[in-house]
Amino acid sequence: MKLVRYKKAYHKIAMGFLSYSSGDQPVKQLQETMTRYETDDSWEMYLVKEQEDLIGIVGAEVAEHSFVVQHLSINPSFRGQGIGKEMVVKLQEEFPDKTPYGNEYTDAFVSKCVLEETRAER
């Protein structure tokens, strides 16, 4: 599995994944979120590639010493396989000098992933 930095060509695919993670958000709100990823330099999105398939997205707001996972979404066919945790770990590899956090929706999952990774390193 690898992370591929978002670019405009992936817009529709990313919107689809974003709609999985955003519940009942109206399309206009999803479009505003995508615009933020496209225009705000502190918001970064990655598509998750497994072999040749794009299977999810992970998006974060990156600050000087930390990053906050804002969105994490996986194709339902690939859920329950540990890919979400692997996505968080790969994101940590992208920003090794930053502390990972989650927002109100992702915090419990991100905290669990970080804790498990810390234990695995011991």
UniProtKB/TrEMBL annotation:
Span of domain N-acetyltransferase: 4-122
CDD domains: NAT_SF
Pfam family of the protein (one): Acetyltransf_10
UniProt cross-references to PROSITE patterns, sorted A to Z: GNAT
Xref: InterPro entries: Acyl_CoA_acyltransferase, GNAT_dom
Signal peptide per UniProt: none
Protein name according to UniProt: GNAT family N-acetyltransferase
Species per Swiss-Prot/TrEMBL record: Sporosarcina gallistercoris
